[in-house]
Amino acid sequence: MIGFIFLSVVLIATAVWVVTARKPVYSVIGLLAHFGALAAMYISLSAEFLGVIQIIVYSGAILVLFTFVIGLLSSGVDSITVGPDRMPKAVIPAGLIVLGSLGLTAYGVLHAATVGPRPGPSALAAQAGDANAFGSVADFGKALFTVHLLPFEVTALVLMVAVIGVILMTASNTPLGATAAQAAKVRREMREAIVRAGDE
Predict the structure, then answer these.
(1) Which of 31, 149, 184, 199 is surrounded by the fewest CB atoms within 10 Å?
(2) Which pTM was predicted?
(3) CA torsion 96→101→105→107, rounded to 10°?
(4) Among residues 76, 102, 118, which one ends one of the domains?
């Protein structure tokens, strides 16, 4: 129960951070922390498959898409200014997090090998590939491609439309993707320059 309360507080705090952050990159970082806490919540509920999919699909793929969209929105608008190098300050915290994760993983593997499986309900003790088990691959696939098929397809369509819209929005700010309005402006300026040269 303590872990559930802690993860709930982290989920609420990171969700508020995503909405209230001033810079889009900070919102992406908050969303990454939110997805990590949600994956931990799934794992605590014995839904290991959903937790791993949460990290691989959302934290690994969807956030890369968000970062790509933010990069497109920021390109060609203002000149890029080189800020201070923050990597040396992040080495120690990142190393501690990695070492802590490896230590917890090693402890969990050794502890599970010595203690053995704990008795529990049949749904929670079932394998991840079995049917009618909470968080199993079979039930997840059945729900995704039957009951929740329409929301799944709509989400994919929304993401595709968002990427196309961002590309169209940023095309006018990039020198390699001139729009019809820019081409007409260049032709008009060239005609005006030719007329002025003839008058002179």
Answers:
(1) 199
(2) 0.50
(3) 40
(4) 76
